[in-house]
Design brief:
Layout: H1 2-26, E1 34-35, E2 38-39, H2 42-55, H3 57-60, H4 95-104, H5 126-138, H6 142-152
Antiparallel strand pairs: 1-2
The structure holds heme C (HEC).
């Protein structure tokens, strides 16, 4: 009887751990998101989501899914808008690069490169760019976030 009690309480403890892990996973992903070394708050992320819907979703997709057939060059020789979720390559770039691309356009990172990605300088403030990128980062699974933290050289955000 004593043994059965032990087994049961062991199972209950395992169950409690599983529930706790589930609760952590289902929370909004604000936990541990940083941008250029600074923590991104849940409020930043909520604001970033609104900024995204107004300024980015028309090309990058409402759910960050990108334009259809985004890997194929358009007739004008330029690339379609890639997804910002884990199926794209936004997470391959360091925070500082994402910031520069959004503020000044892709040509600011790759000289002479022609792109349909608009520069948001004068449209969004630096803080708004930070929020929208913080929102995008908050949607990435742990693996992509960890990779991108390493590329960024952000030890605080690395798992
Ligand atoms: C008019 C369409 C359009 C809008 C609006 C737009 N983008 Fe883009 N974006 C693009 C295109 C097209 C590319 C691909 C650039 C290329 O490779 O030529 C791109 C690329 C990017 C990249 C580089 C991604 C990578 O993996 O290399 C980032 C970051 C980015 N956009 C962020 C944003 C953010 C943030 C917003 C909103 C504030 C936004 N974009 C709004 C069209 C757009």
């Amino acid at each position: 009887m004593k043994r059965l009690g032990l087994i049961l309480s062991g199972a209950a403890a395992a169950g409690a751990v599983a529930v706790a892990a589930w609760a952590i996973q289902s929370e909004p992903a604000a936990e541990g998101v940083t941008f250029m070394g600074e923590p991104v708050t849940a409020a930043d992320i909520a604001l970033g989501q609104e900024i995204y819907a107004v300024n980015c979703a028309s090309c990058h997709g409402r759910d960050l899914e990108g334009q259809p057939d985004w890997k194929r060059r358009l007739e004008n020789g330029r690339m379609p808008a890639p997804p910002h979720d884990e199926t794209g390559h936004t997470w391959h770039h360091a925070d500082s690069q994402l910031f520069t691309i959004t503020k000044l356009g892709v040509g600011a990172v790759v000289e002479g490169y022609e792109s349909d990605m608009p520069a948001f300088e004068g449209i969004l403030t630096d803080a708004e760019i930070r929020s929208v990128l913080g929102y995008i980062k908050s949607t990435w699974p742990e693996r992509e976030r960890g990779f991108q933290a390493e590329v960024t050289g952000d030890e605080k955000a690395a798992p």
